[in-house]
Amino acid sequence: MSKRALISVSDKTGLVDLARGLVELGWELLSTGGTARTLTTAGLPVTEVATVTGFPEILDGRVKTLHPKIHGGILARPTPEHLAQLQEQGIQPIDLVVVNLYPFRETIARPGVTPAEAIENIDIGGPAMVRAAAKNHERVGIVVDPASYDEVLAELREKGSLSPETRRRLAAAAFAHTAAYDAAIAAYFQRLMGSEEPFPASFVLSGEKVQDLRYGENPHQGAAFYRLPAPPPGTLAGARQLQGKELSYNNLMDLDAAWNLACDFKEPVVAIIKHTNPCGVARASTPAAAYRLAYAADPVSAFGGIVACNRPVDGEMAGAMAEVFLEAVIAPSFTPEAMAILKSKPHLRLLAAGERAGYRTREYQVRPVSGGFLVQEPDYHVLEPESLKVVTTRKPEAKEMADLLFAWQVVKHVKSNAIVVARDGVTLGIGAGQMNRVGAARIALEQAGVRAKGAVLASDAFFPFGDTVELAGRAGITALIQPGGSVRDEESIRAADAAGIAMVFTGIRHFRH
């Protein structure tokens, strides 16, 4: 009896070559719907599944392979008892299952897709066949990835059958395939549920490997980059690398931090990042002007940095960046003139992320802990000026208020304890990740130097003592923004009044660990 292969694929890549190779080896082909039509058009002999089952496809194709003559042929073990039952029921064994699933992830990635369209692209029969074949990999080969076709054909030609090791490896890939598929569906329904159930009892997460990385944060750590199903435009995982060396783990961490900071602003902004913290951030009327200001804010730290711009990079900005050593640049796009200039820096990594589609591009932040992981909503809070509370005798002037809002938006992206000194829409000093707030302030004010005079200062959390305010006053800071809420708020307010500093409370903090 000839061996039988059941082929039913949504992705037709490599289909005809695989099927032709099987036919040349004497295999019988079973198929359904569009796959059968493709094979017939290619002149290959194929038996329709409906012919085997004696039952037509029904319910607009929702039911076609869910039948004992299909699943019995897949699930039967090579035991006398099972083979006898197959003979009694007139069922022939199926030795190879080649299935990939309805394009659910591709469907939900399309703009404007409706729930009805998404639901019709949830495969039922396909996963059932994949899981059945993978369960019975003792006898059956299961292939879900067109990239495996050549390897499978080569082994069949050489040995006449697939080895137990190959069948086991293919089964593992098949279970991972269906797990990722179901995870994408679960995540889609979680999005549909929205605020009804923001943190479900079971949190499902899956990713498709984009690339193996040379190493992780350090050379002795392994690492890989995965993307979530159907990442929307405007995300790092959906970005295209246009040129440059291979991205490293640290590059990707810094790119994500820089891109999220830049995209937090509506006006043109450039952020330069080192070790996930900003070293220079500026807003201006053009990307080139913003870049020059951000770079000048801390040129020592900017050397070898990661640059993010929330506007397309033009020739003028590219020319300015070409003058120094940078690791990577991410932006919505790069003009042809910019690409021509930056080709002179072939190792510089350029990523085009597309326009960020709406403000909220990520529903969750996930971080591992020993034996589990933490899930939270991203910090999407945007401060509205009317929500501020002025607590000092002196009120901020309009220019000071604009700088306070800018500094507050930047400090949200700095590791706690965090202090940002800014003026005229440019950061002058940033203190990040310190164990006490006054230490972070000293770093930021020292970096700002004489430029601190007339500048403003933002703190990501309240001042537990008046020492930070006093330090700011001695440096010439004229206005402060902080959450408020400390039991010692009155001490800070008195210190600000004594120094003639305006201080406003936001009522919200921005811890970043």
Briefly, what is this?
This protein has 513 residues and is α/β, with parallel strands linked by helices.
Describe the structure.
By secondary structure, the protein is an alpha/beta fold. The protein folds into 3 domains: 4-193, Methylglyoxal synthase-like domain (Rossmann fold, 3-Layer(aba) Sandwich); 259-373, AICAR transformylase, duplication domain (Cytidine Deaminase, domain 2, 3-Layer(aba) Sandwich), CATH 3.40.140; 385-505, 3-Layer(aba) Sandwich (Cytidine Deaminase, domain 2). Helix content is 38%, strand content 19%. It has 19 helices and 21 strands. The strands form 5 sheets. The chain has a 6-stranded mixed beta sheet with strand order 8-13-12-11-9-10, sandwiched between helices. Strands 16-21-20-19-17-18 form a 6-stranded mixed beta sheet, with helices on both faces. Strands 3-2-1-4-5 form a 5-stranded parallel beta sheet, with helices on both faces. It starts with a strand and ends in an 8-residue tail after the last strand.
Give descriptors for this structure.
six-stranded mixed beta sheet; single chain; 3 domains; Cytidine Deaminase, domain 2; elongated; alpha/beta; Rossmann fold; 513 residues; 19 helices
How many β-strands, per DSSP? 21
User: Number of folding domains?
Assistant: 3
Helix content: 25-40%
Annotated CATH architecture of the largest domain: 3-Layer(aba) Sandwich
Total helical elements: 19
Can you give the mean pLDDT? 90
Q: Major sheet, described briefly?
A: 6 strands, mixed
Query: Per CATH, what is the topology of the largest domain?
Result: Rossmann fold
Structural class: alpha/beta
CATH top level of the largest domain is: Alpha Beta
How many whole angstroms does the radius of gyration measure? 30 Å
- Indicate the proportion of strand residues: 15-25%
Shape, please? elongated
For this structure, what is the CATH homologous superfamily of the largest domain?
Answer: Methylglyoxal synthase-like domain
Major β-sheet strand ordering: 8-13-12-11-9-10
Q: Give the end-to-end Cα distance, rounded to a whole number of Å.
A: 64 Å
Low-confidence stretches: none
